[in-house]
Specification:
Layout (H helix, E strand, L loop, with lengths): L2 H21 L9 H10 L6 H12 L4 H22 L9 E2 L2 E2 L1 H4 L2 H20 L6 H15 L4 H10 L7 H27 L3 H28 L2 H4 L5 H4 L5 H5 L1 H19 L7 H12 L3
Antiparallel strand pairs: 1-2
């Protein structure tokens, strides 16, 4: 990773971590174990890519990191909820996430389900309660989160992924899954940053193109890492997609064409933010990093 990007991500990650602590503080009392399970998963590491993208976009388009922080943290709450539920025995049945036991292994399955539910609802709670944003922007952010992560977004993509498991690899099907399961939530992160900044339609359109492209590139890179990465690098089991007959880009087009498609998407993302010049350098470097990462 480029040294300048590494420093910027560390700086932004610190802002996000402080925000997450603010919006999900520790609790004590008879029923505090639910919060403990929520915090266990939220503070288990992770790149904080979605909230960082929201913050970077907000600042690029004339807003501030503080104004966008609650909405940015909401994207991380939703992402974490999706991982908790993804790991459940009824879904991917994973025991390790980010190098340590998954939520349902560290606690139990019912509490893990409720921890995910709690994080999903907390995301909307902190958005609508954010008095630092005008009411119309809060509504716009909540609507964006709903569209990107509901039945016509991430949840719909996950349903298609499960339904098509074991089916003959099909390019149209895998593009649908990737676009909904990963592409729309990542696109939402940058769109939320734009909405918090009060950006105009042209800027929202450009940043949407960027977000959609990096979202698809991210999932293709994940597919490739499941084929070529190690459990130590990934912090979770690898090779499970192929073993379960999941729809992945390498399964459909092979690893070389999948890697080429990811690079093509990065070029599209770079073209989208090119009009902003140097101020968009971090978004540009994140796009490149997404396909070069090893975890």
């Amino acid at each position: 990773m480029d040294g300048r990007l590494k420093q910027r991500l560390a700086q932004q990650r610190g802002i996000v971590e402080a925000g997450l602590e603010r919006y999900l503080p520790e609790e004590t009392g008879a029923f505090s174990r639910l919060t403990e399970a929520m915090r266990y998963s939220v503070f288990s590491g992770g790149k904080r890519l979605r909230p960082i993208l929201a913050l970077e976009t907000a600042v690029l388009l004339g807003g501030t990191a503080e104004t966008a922080l609650a909405s940015a943290c909401a994207t991380e709450f939703i992402h974490t909820y999706s991982l908790i539920h993804d790991d459940l025995p009824a879904m991917d049945d994973d025991d390790i996430r980010r190098g340590r036991p998954t939520c349902h292994r560290a606690f139990d399955e019912p509490l893990a389900i409720l921890a995910g539910d709690g994080l999903l609802t907390a995301a909307f709670e902190i958005v609508v309660a954010d008095e630092g944003l005008p009411a119309e922007r809060r509504v716009a952010v909540a609507a964006e989160l709903s569209r990107a992560n509901g039945r016509h977004g991430m949840v719909g993509g996950q349903a298609a992924d499960i339904a098509l498991e074991g089916s003959t690899p099909d390019l149209e099907a895998i593009e649908y899954i990737h676009a909904h399961k990963t592409g729309l939530p990542l696109r939402a992160a940058v769109r939320i940053g734009a909405l918090c900044a009060g950006a105009g339609e042209a800027d929202v359109a450009r940043i949407s193109s960027y977000g959609e492209s990096i979202g698809l590139a991210f999932q293709i890179a994940d597919d490739l890492l499941d084929e070529t990465g190690t459990a130590e690098e990934m912090g979770k089991a690898v090779g499970k997609d192929r073993a379960r007959g999941k729809m992945t880009y390498p399964a459909v087009v092979g690893t070389e064409r999948a890697a080429a498609r990811a690079q093509e998407l990065v070029r599209t993302a770079l073209d989208a933010v090119e009009p902003y010049g140097e101020p968009a350098w971090c978004l540009a470097e994140i796009a490149k990093y997404i396909v070069s990462r090893r975890s």
